[in-house]
Amino acid sequence: MKNNYWGEIVFGTILIIFGIILINPFMFWMPTTMLMMAVAAFALIFFFFAGFVWKESSRDEREALHKFVAGRAAFLTGVGTLALGIIVQSFSHLIDPWLVAALTAMVLAKLIARAVLK
């Protein structure tokens, strides 16, 4: 049985690299024009990665279980990271609304999916 996850691995790795490049805290890496091109490339790569994740399918129960465990790990990592970001930023009394919005969207998506698929 051959697992064909190379596309997901490649686009995931490129997505992570572009995310690190986009952090760019001191405008050291790129001028503004280059940064906007990198943002566009980041968005495009994200859509490719999301396409791979969306179309993945399981051939048997074992693969389905692995898919569900990976999804749960990713969800908990995302929620934990956002919650930690909110906690850390609350010490400076300046919480980025995007952190709260992302955390809310993730939790609402999970609750709605559970309610619909029940």
Polypeptide structure, described:
There is one protein chain. The chain is mostly helical and 118 residues long. The protein is built from four helices and no strands. The protein has helices at 6-23, 32-55, 61-91, 97-117. Helix 1 packs antiparallel against helix 2 (32-55) and helix 3 (61-91) packs antiparallel against helix 4 (97-117). It is flat and about 50 Å long. The chain starts with 5 loop residues before the first helix and ends with a helix.
Helix-strand blueprint:
Blueprint (H helix, E strand, L loop, with lengths): L5 H18 L8 H24 L5 H31 L5 H21 L1
Helix pairs in contact: 1-2, 3-4
CA radius of gyration is: 17 Å
Q: Total helix count?
A: 4
Biggest sheet, in brief? none
Helical residues, percent: over 70%
Task: Record keyword descriptors for this entry.
single chain; 118 residues; mainly alpha; 4 helices; 80% helix
Q: TL;DR?
A:
This protein is mainly α. It contains four helices and no strands.
